[in-house]
Each structure stands twice: as C-alpha cells, then as structure tokens.
Amino acid sequence: MLMLITYDVDTTTAAGRKRLRLVARQCVNYGQRVQNSVFECNVDAATARIVKAKLADIIDPEKDSLRFYNLGNSYQRRVDHIGAKPGYDPEGLLMV
Description:
single chain, alpha+beta
C-alpha cells in the first residue's frame, strides 16, 4: 500500500534540528522524498506500523507533528501530479 508521510519538526533549537535529520533519515529508509517534508512509501501494514512507531519515538509531540495518509493499493488513481519534479514508480527499484 502507498502511505504518504508528512512531518513538521520545530527546528528553532539544536535538538529540533537533530530530530528533523533523524525523521528524514528514517523516512528515506522506507520511501521516496517527493517534497521537502513529504515521503511516499510503498509498504505493507506491518512495515507501516514499524515506521510509525520509529518516527513517534523520535519526535517531540509537544513541538513536532507527523501525518500518515494511507492511500491503499489502488493509489494510482488517487494521486495527481502537476508541475516540476517528475513522478516515479513507487513499485520500482528504490536505491538507498
């Protein structure tokens, strides 16, 4: 299933900047960055739970936020793209 992860991390402190880097590194392990704080991840349900738990452990819930959008397996008809940064095949090879 395609899961969209978005995050907003408070970077006014050094600790916040570190959390931002850690969140981005985790997201890169599971998907493709499509915008600055937005990742598309093609994962199964078990992996989705793991990613959510890992990210929840990193952020400060009083200052940061995470959003997870589950687009399911029929995501192709739910995603429209217009503009720069051409799309990619989420089911294709992901190089890390």
